[in-house]
């Protein structure tokens, strides 16, 4: 099948490469000349495990091409809209300007009976507006149909989520559109991936609703962690108990500095904004509280750092390990780690930051000093914070690191460190919601 993908950011580039793996002839189109040049050369413009290999495979096979020329879509029968829908400046609603620009550029290029498939996360009701706009911009009887097929990619797992998704959502208005989408996804459907057919509106709500549920879960567990701190209870045992409840389950029950990235925060806010437009005020109240808790976690981490620096952070050297919003990604959009680092720097501390992949995004930051290794960042540090859950941070040797820092005090913002191992190495280990390790308990455990 001949397919075009409009927008070659994180979503579009990954989706285009997956389509080529399935044997389709795919062209990715974007206005970003530099990005298109990189992709056409088989060079990944962002860090994502497995993507560089998938991209090169598609380009070398001849099934995957990239262009800045809108005419490149002329021969395609199915067109995927994968443009970004960021949060509007100064507001919570989604910015759909890139979407409408893509629709306007696509309309005069559409073949008779073409299928236009939205994958971007949009406010509910957008698909119907896209259908109306295409009907206005194309000749009567042109037969163009709009479907919505939301993405559920997790950064750090995007290739796996594309090639082996846990579900497909097919938002369609006709059997013909469903049949066309099933042909696009024939390989994964043959592998047993469940597909849910639904209407356009429900499909539009699917991704944002999933993110709303996930964001709410993370904020709730962070509230529970703060209550545990106040009550001198144990959040680790509490989440273990909760996770054994079959109605709750164990995933995403780890407290920390909160969620971030290019999806969860903006999708939460856009969903809340759209719900308010539809007159569902309770959604705004509930999701506003979820957002408030999440932002508060970052300030709690900054406040903890200030306390551990004896309330005198100015001029003190602080090491921050992690800048991306999550491991296996170089994405620093709305990153809690970066927000905490910036907040500590604003107190006058000298903050040295190391991230395995995201350091190049910080090159122009005047408030942070970017280092090329964890050891370099920690040298002579009076406080160390682990703020992204990179596996290499969990594997750090606390004895060796203890020799190069000035003070052995660490904040584990993602609960990736073994607190007893670090305590035995002479470190004070702190974390939001987690009790400091009991040295006597640790001694008894070793003796047993």
Mean pLDDT: 94
Widest beta sheet: strand line-up: 3-2-1-4-5-6
Low-confidence stretches: 439-448
Describe the sheet with the most strands.
6 strands, parallel
Helix content: 40-55%
Helix and strand content put the structural class at alpha/beta
CATH architecture term of the largest domain: 3-Layer(aba) Sandwich
Rg value: 24 Å
Which topology of the largest domain does CATH recognise? Rossmann fold
**Residues in β-strands, percent:** 5-15%
Task: List the total number of helices.
Answer: 18
CATH superfamily of the largest domain: NAD(P)-binding Rossmann-like Domain
Per-chain topology:
Elements: E1 2-6, H1 10-21, E2 25-29, H2 33-40, H3 51-61, E3 64-67, E4 78-81, H4 97-106, E5 115-118, H5 126-137, E6 145-148, H6 158-163, E7 168-171, H7 175-184, H8 186-190, E8 195-198, H9 200-231, H10 235-243, H11 264-277, H12 281-308, E9 317-321, H13 336-346, E10 350-354, E11 369-370, H14 374-378, E12 383-386, H15 391-394, H16 398-402, E13 409-412, H17 419-424, E14 428-430, H18 439-447
Parallel strand pairs: 1-2, 1-4, 2-3, 4-5, 5-6, 7-8, 9-10, 9-12, 10-11, 12-13, 13-14
């Amino acid at each position: 099948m001949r397919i075009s993908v409009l927008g070659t950011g994180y979503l579009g580039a990954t989706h285009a490469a997956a389509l080529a793996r399935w044997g389709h002839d795919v062209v990715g189109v974007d206005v970003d000349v530099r990005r298109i040049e990189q992709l056409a050369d088989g060079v990944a413009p962002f860090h994502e495990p497995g993507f560089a290999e998938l991209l090169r495979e598609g380009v070398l096979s001849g099934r995957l091409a990239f262009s800045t020329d809108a005419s490149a879509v002329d021969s395609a029968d199915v067109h995927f809209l994968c443009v970004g829908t960021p949060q509007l400046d100064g507001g919570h609603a989604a910015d759909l300007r890139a979407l409408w620009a893509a629709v306007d550029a696509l309309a005069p290029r559409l073949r008779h009976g073409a299928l236009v498939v939205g994958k971007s996360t949009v406010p509910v009701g957008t698909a119907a507006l896209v259908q109306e706009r295409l009907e206005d911009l194309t000749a009567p009887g042109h037969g163009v149909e709009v479907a919505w097929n939301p993405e559920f990619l997790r950064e750090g797992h995007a290739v796996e989520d594309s090639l082996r998704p846990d579900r497909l959502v097919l938002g369609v208005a006709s059997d013909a559109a469903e049949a066309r989408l099933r042909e696009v996804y024939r390989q994964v459907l043959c592998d047993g991936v469940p597909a849910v057919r639904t209407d356009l509106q429900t499909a539009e709500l699917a991704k944002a609703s999933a993110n709303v549920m996930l964001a709410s879960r993370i904020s709730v567990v962070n509230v529970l962690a703060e209550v545990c701190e106040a009550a001198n209870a144990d959040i680790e045992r509490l989440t273990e108990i909760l996770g054994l409840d079959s109605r709750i389950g164990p995933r995403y029950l780890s407290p920390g500095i909160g969620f971030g990235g290019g999806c969860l925060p903006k999708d939460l806010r856009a969903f809340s904004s759209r719900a308010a437009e539809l007159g569902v005020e309770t959604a705004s109240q509930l999701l506003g509280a979820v957002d408030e808790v999440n932002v508060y976690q970052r300030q709690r981490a900054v406040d903890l750092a200030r306390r551990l620096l004896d309330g005198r952070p100015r001029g003190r050297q602080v090491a921050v390990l992690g800048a991306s919003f999550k491991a296996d990604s170089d994405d620093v959009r709305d990153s809690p780690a970066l927000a905490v680092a910036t907040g500590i720097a604003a107190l006058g501390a000298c903050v040295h930051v190391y991230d395995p992949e995201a350091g190049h995004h910080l090159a122009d930051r005047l408030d942070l000093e970017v280092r090329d290794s964890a050891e370099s960042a920690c040298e002579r540090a009076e406080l160390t914070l682990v703020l992204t859950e990179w596996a290499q941070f969990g594997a750090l040797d606390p004895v060796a690191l203890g020799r190069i820092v000035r003070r052995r005090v660490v904040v584990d913002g993602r609960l990736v460190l073994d607190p007893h191992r670090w305590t035995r190495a002479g470190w004070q280990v702190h974390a939001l919601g987690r009790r400091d390790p009991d040295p006597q308990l640790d001694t008894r455990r070793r003796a047993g």
